Amino acid sequence: MSFKFSFVHQAQSILRQYLPPKYQGKLLHRATLGPGEHHTFQVTFWASRPGQYGLGAWQIENDVGEISSTAESWRTRSRYLQGPSSEGCVLVRAAG
Description:
Elements: E1 22-24, E2 44-46, E3 51-54, E4 60-67, E5 74-82, E6 89-92
């Protein structure tokens, strides 16, 4: 794999391969929030050996809307998709 960033200046690149984490428990989480509320999802991953694990595979989908007063069903006004991020990683070291 090669990268070229400039025809005038030198550039250095680092290509990192992170270990894929194995998640434990639910892989799909849902929450309904009112205006101004927030929620934190907690997930657990299993580190099978020492190394750097990439955590950037998660993405969040937000539906902004309201419950229709006539049909008691959700009415989406806007939808946003964020992620995945390539930034997150965790380093696991061997004990001892």
